[in-house]
Every structure is written in C-alpha cells, then in structure tokens.
Design a protein that fits this description.
The chain has a nine-stranded mixed beta sheet. The radius of gyration is 24 Å and the shape is globular. A hairpin with a 2-residue loop joins strand 21 and strand 22. It has 18 helices and 30 strands. Bound molecules: ligand 6R9. Ligand 6R9 binds next to helix 10, strand 14, strand 22 and strand 23.
Amino acid sequence: MTWTTPPKMPESGQPASPLVELDHAAIQTGFSWDTARTELAGLPDGGLNIAFEAVDRWVAAGFGERIALRWLGKNSERREFSYADLARLSNRFAHLLDRLGVTPGERVCLLAGRIPELYISALGTLKAGAVFCPLFSAFGPEPVRVRLVKSQARVLVTTTRLYERKVRAQRHELSDLRHILLTDGGDESGLLPFHALLAAESDERNPPVTRPDDMALLHFTSGTTGTPKGAVHVHDAVVAHRLTGRLALDVRPGDIYWCTADPGWVTGVSYGIIAPLVIGATLVVDEAEFDARRWYAILEQERVNVWYTAPTAIRMLMKVGAAALQGRDLGALRFMASVGEPLNPEAVIWSRKVLGQPFHDTWWQTETGAIMIANTPGLAIRPGSMGQPLPGIEAAIVRRRADGGVDVLEPDEQGELALRVGWPSLFRDYLGDPDRYRQCFAGDWYLSGDLARCDAEGYFWFVGRADDVIKTAGHLIGPFEVESALLEHPAVAEAGMIGKPDEFAGQIIKAFVALKPGYEPGDALRKELLGFARTRLGPAVAPRELEFMADLPKTRSGKIMRRLLRARELGLPLGDLSTLEGEAPSGPVGMVAE
Ligand code: 6R9
C-alpha cells in the first residue's frame, strides 16, 4: 500500500484486517507533509482541530458505535466509551468551558491519573479552541504550583484527593485560575462538580473553528537551568501524530492499542490519546500502576495488537521473569515499541526470546511532539540503536560552531542530534520564554540537546544528554527544581543534583548537599532532607539518595559543577572532566575557571 490510502475502519471484528506492509523506501521518496495532511478530514476553509479528527470525523463517517476507549479501573471496574460517546461528552465539556468564560487560547490544566475524565477534558478543551495542559499526578505541590502559574491556567480539572494534597494550600497564589472542576465531588466555595455540570450541557455542538496554527497543547519539560519550560504545540501537530502512529507504531484502524504512559507527559497525550484515536483504533487504558502479572493479563484478555511502553517497565518485566507470563497467550500482539530512555540491547534480545518478538525503540521529545526516529516495522533492528528518521524527517549529527551555525558531522562521529525544521508537530514556542525557544535553533536546524551518532547505514545511536537534565523511569527532571526545593530547607547552603545509573530506572536522582554553619551531617538530617524534598516535589521528582559534602565544586561565578559531581560519583578519572565540562579544573578547593 502507499501511506496515502485513507484510513478506513473495518466493518466489524478485531483485530483489523491486515494491511499490506509499509514500504518505507517508497514512502520516503514520495513523501510530502502536504499529502500527509490530506489523510485528515479537515474543517471548512482550511480549519483543523485535533479533537474533531480524533472523534467527530469517525462519528460522521458512520463509525460512532466503535469502541474508542476501554477503561480498566484500579479495582477491576471496566467502562467502555464509543467514539460517539466521546464526541458527545467532549461536546459537553466544550460547552462547559464556554459557560465558564474560557476563551480560545486559554489553558485548561488537568491533574489526574488515567481516568475517563482525562479523555473527555482533553478532547473538549481542544474543541473549545482552548489549550490542553496535562500535569503529572505524582508531582508534589511545588512543581504543580510552578506549572499552574506558568501556564496561567484558567481552569483546573482534578480529583478531590489531588486538590487537597497538592493545590489547596497554594490556591491564593494562583491568580489566573478561575475555576477548579472536581471529577469526584465539588460543591464548596469555587470547587465545581465536573459531572453535575457536564450533565447540564448539550450533546450537540457546531464543529470547532480552530486553524492549523492555533495553539492546542502545552507540555511542560525541563532544562538545566531555570523553571520548567512550557512547549507549545498547535493543531497541525495532528498530521504528525497520525502519520507516526501509522508508520512507527504500526497502529491500524480497528486495532486494540495500549500505551502505558502517564498522561502528564507528552507520550501520554500524543500516543496515549491523539494518534490512536485519529487512526481509528480502540484505546485500552489501565488506571493502575505497573504490575507484571496484571500487564500480561491485560495483553492477553484485551487482545492488544499494538503496545507502546517504556524501557523502565521492560526492565521490570525482565526482572520479574518469564514465570509471570506463564500460560498467557499474547497471540494478538503484533507490534511492540518503547520510548523515553535508551532501550538496552538486552531488552530487545530478551523480548525476542520471551515475548516472541522484539521491542522497537523510538526516539522523540516533548519539543518534537511526535516520533522522529524509529525502528519501524519494515526496518531490520540493530539492538541498541534508535533506528532511522521517519519519512518527512531529516536528522543529522552536528557540532555547533562559534558563529552560531552548525557543521554536519561524518558517519560514526559523535555530536548533537539535530532535526531540520519543517515537520508539523515541532513546538512553536516555550510559553513566555521566547529567548529559550530561539536558543534551540541554529539556522534551520532544531538542536535536541541529545548526544548521538549515526552509522554509515543511517541508524542513530543515543550517547547521552548534552546538558544536565536527567531521565529517571522515563521522566525528564531538571536540576533547578530539585535543587531549589532542597535550598529551601534551613540547613542547606548548597545543593547539586546528578543522575546516578540504576539497573531499573535508568538513572535515579542523587543530591549533594553542603550544610550551613551550625548543622552537622548525619543520618537523621539526611532522612529529614530526603523527606522534605519528597513532600515538596513528589516521589517522581525527589532525590532518592543524598550525600553531604563540605562544599560543592563550583565555577568561579558560583555555578555548581554537576558534571564534576557525576564524574566523582562514577569514579571517572579527573582527566575526563575537560571533555565532560568543556573546562579544565584549576586550583584547589573545587573551584575551577569558567
Ligand atoms: C518522548 C519523551 C526527551 C528525552 C530525549 C532523550 C530521552 C527519549 C529516547 C531517549 C534514548 C530513546 N529519550 N527517547 N533516549 N533513547 N529512544 O521521552 O520526551 O520527556 O521530552 O524526553 O528523552 O534524552 O531528549 P521527553
């Protein structure tokens, strides 16, 4: 087939009737984003809306009764939503936002786990022309506050428990926030009942009036310095969501598809909501956290065809061992892929042996909005490689020049992974941080901040990050938030954070702390500081280890040299520092020249 074949839902039955394998070379040659755009229904006068593409177009085409969302609750509840149900409920939510005075472009944040209200709110927000911004429910009060302030959220959708634990105490600081909708209650001062209000709205709504370049999604991500950055995405991103869902994940109309990502991160939205619905698949959503036996049971019982997960989860499955799989029939499973951190070669080999097929690594970022590099179905896997760029994506390994340009490096040379701008899901701004946005580009290259190399056959290999952010269990954490939280403790004079290699999470966060005069290092204080950070930041962001130092290595201007901390922790020779930091240590007491 060619990729231009319009998506059609099968008339009945699962899985979908198999399509002819994709011919990637042919796709690459004849590719254009404009043609990819014609795969979508679109709106009158060149309009485009992600939610319309995800649900309403299927209803209009007569597939409204097909199951869009099969939700598996923590306590074995099971609920199904057809495409028509999601269309109606998201219409109601869009009406509710109108009634609450939300205007196009304003942000609606969601702080919750994988609950049905997430999908209704996301789609309804997009239909109303507002901007959907998911927050990670494992964040503590401080990261939540920072993101609500920075997004200038008008409406927050959350649960009573999360509101009480993470929002209530700081509500007075959220001057832009007008309404809080509680999915499980809400009738006291300013807390509104999500369901009662939804029940009063109409099922019918005129098609959205958004344009391709209108802001649709806001995803927070972290850098080395400063507060989190809100990556802005537009409705046109849906062109890339759909195409990459088809080409990189092999999702087909009518498939049963399971993405295990949390909705608070970009994967949980691009591939946990948008791509599979736009393709016309059935989403399986499990509310519960990782549990190997439960996961294998879901794969079997729901007859999952395509499964998208993360290396940390795969490593945990490997640890639990094949016994957990005993007796399970994964015969429906056609394609397995992973994202978020390096997929170790052993995991690919293990999955081939134990699950009967390999995990396919995919690479992308919050900023790229969609998968850029992947081991696609038709490509021979080189275990440990991220694969090759998708059609419409030009990737290169570059070195930044002093004049602001870049040099493209030769095969096998290590440098920064760069992508030539021009694909629809590239972020359009960091909200309120235009300078930081500009710094991501050199000419028409977007610079990813990842170090990588490309072999002579065009396969890309991940090497590491060029900056100090770390990935722990697939979550990107910036040092600024962690160190700032520790610095708020009265005993802490200096704090530095590094990623320490971990067998399962890839890396864990380790903090180094120098104390103020009058405080003595010791186990009790270590526990207190770890607890202090955990309360503020939440378990996903807080350091797991903490070490006291007399003082932290700094540059002359006082910047903590995290790379020196890391080199010390990993036992790297000091000689490596010049390459790590790009500056040589000079003089005693850990002070080095800038
Ligand atoms: C989707 C997502 C982006 C960073 C990225 C890189 C790391 C993602 C990877 C990978 C090695 C892979 N990363 N995929 N590293 N192999 N297949 O993860 O977005 O949270 O913004 O993180 O994650 O360092 O730059 P985000």
